[in-house]
Design a protein that fits this description.
72% of the residues lie in helices and 9% in strands. The chain contains twelve helices and 14 strands. The strands form four sheets. Strands 2-9-8-4-5 form a five-stranded mixed sheet, with no helix packed on it. The protein has a four-stranded antiparallel sheet with strand order 1-3-7-6. Strands 10-12-14 form a three-stranded parallel sheet. Strand 8 (672-680) and strand 9 form a beta hairpin. The chain is flat.
Length: 801
Amino acid sequence: MKTGLAALSIAGLVALGNQADVQADTPVENGTDNGQNASEVSETKAASAQNMEEAEENLDDALDSQAEAEEKVDQAETDLKEAQDEKNAIKEEQSDLSASAEEAKDSLESAIKEEKDSAQAAKDQAEADLKESEEKQETAEKEAAEAEDNVSKAEDNLKEKEETVKKAEEEGTGASEEEIAEAKEKVDQAEEKVETAQKEYDKADAAAQEEEKKQETAQKEFDQADAEYQPVLNEMKELLSEMRKVFEASSKAERECEELKENIRAVEQDMAVYEPEYFNNWLESVRKNAVAAEAAKKQAEEALENAETQVAEKKEAMEQAETTDDKEAAKEAYEEAVKAKEEAENALNKAIEELELRKQALDWVESIQVEESIERCKETLAQLTKELEEKEAEVEALDKEYSRLDRMVFEKEDELIIVEKPWVEKSEALDAAKDSYEKASQIRDEKKSALDSAKEELTNAQKALDELSNKDLKEALEAKEQAEADLKAAKNALESAQKNLKQAQTETESSRKALEEAQAALEQADGLTLEKVLAADENDPFYQKHKETVDLINTAPDRLAELEKELKEAEADIKEKQNALEAAQKKKAEADADAAIAIADWQKYLQIVEGDGAEYTKGSGKELNLIANGGMFKFDTLLIDGVEAENYGILMNFDETSIILEGSVLDKLSAGAHKVTFKYQYGEVSATIYIKEAEGTQDPKPGAGEGTETGGNIQTGGAGSGTQTGGIIEAGGAGTGNAGGLKETGSVTGENAAAQTAGSTTTGKTPKTGDKGIFGLMAQMTAALGAVFVLAGKKFRDFRR
């Protein structure tokens, strides 16, 4: 199945697709030889192209069949899997339904048992309740009888106390009337005091309660004001806390900015050190210091040598001295010479240390790679500058955040003022209410003390009066009052006992009825069986209670029968899908075999049709054009000596692969033979090219009939050749054009009529719209028919890898 220009039934486009370009580095002697060579190449390529065309068609058909067979296998596998999934789903539903039905039966039987157990338990409970009710009734009857007996006894006791009172009244009192009257007056006065104190206390208590209510009201109003005030106050505290954090972060960021600026200034100072003029001065200064240190060392050595000479001389003089004075003088001179020698040695050591330091400094400065150091400083400066910009941005953002928080604090202050005023007022009102309540409570306590004193005084007066009064009568009256109270209590107890007895009788009757109902329910439950429940009427209470379970058990057999039928159908469907899969796999195996044969056949005809054995001389700047008869769409990559080539051109020709290797690529290869491999999807084919070292070149100069131009157009009216890098070549007569742009053969007679190469590259000028030649025809036909171009440019040429 062929695509692109080669599939068109137009003679010019067929020639365009099947013809190759002339080799880039093959010199052309004249137009006639070129036409003959092109004819021979065309015939060779035509035969090869015919075989390869048939092999490609067979391969494409085989691959299409293989893909179609593989798709059918995939579909058959999918269908089989779906059928197996359907069968598994049916079996799973069968298993689940059977298990559910068994579980439902077990559940229903358990429910029947629970129903029976519940009925038995209800009957047992009803019997226990009845027994308890009867016991309560019996107890209530006894309590009612005891209450009636107590009432009778209380009535007899009251009659007895009344007779005692009557007897005491007849006997009279032993105190004088004046004493009794005086005691009664004191009692009356004490009662008045109690009454007055009671009124004052009641008044003070009412006032205290009123103040307490006011305090509670003030507390509620304060709590309400505080509920509005505290959230605003807390928000203000949070805002101030956040402002403090932002301020601290901003201050920290500003300090970091200053540190970064200090670091930047330090790096800039370091960079200034590495400036050529400054650095050279610095280096010269360090060198001078080293030279000066060397000179100082030499000077110190000379001084030490002189000092040592002086020591020797002074020692000899000291040994030769004869008189005591001369010896003393010589000894002093000797000691001074020794001391001078020691100082000279110290000076030399210091000079040596100084020289060593100066040398180390010089070595270090001379070892400095200025450009690398400057580069490092630039990198450090760029990094520090970036960090400073980020930190300054952070400071700016923090300042904005601080301003935003400051505005919010200002707004919150207004809001706080609004809610703070009522809060203060309510707080003060609450404090005042608490003070008022405290004062009122204090007054109430004082009045209470006065009341207690008055009552105590009344008690004492009453006690004195009692002592003067008839004690027997008083005791008789108190006993009578107690007897009356006892009688009243006995009657109340009798009434309560009679009420309890009536309630116990009612509960006993209810318990008997409940027992009868429980016995009936137990008899009904004892008659329940699984078969009766499954066959029960829809109105049956037990059926309604377990409707879902019963319906599941009753419908399960029919559904299981349906699933068994569906299972058989699914197994038949699986068998059918398995047969279909086996047939598809068989066809797939046949298609795989056909594809393998087609690939082998295609590989058999895959060959280099042009360029094998081509030679290239380094530095010539020419190109090599290698053509393999494998279709361009099956081409994968190009290998040179087993390594994937980085830069190469592909001329557009869909029926074959036409590769251009430029001089810039070939110049990098070593002299000798090199293997160029066309790697396709289904095989590979190799050509050998030969690289020669340049023996000596000179600039070519245009002669008669030749035109040389870089990046422009060459038009030659007569026989000859045109050489151009980029742009367009058009030769009016018999001749050839070798270029990195569009190539056309100008002769239109003989077998060269179709010898035009379908390819263009655009390193130089791009042909303008409307230019004549094969490029214009190809562009027009491609635009009209939607032909596909391969754009594989890597570094150079739009259509090159």
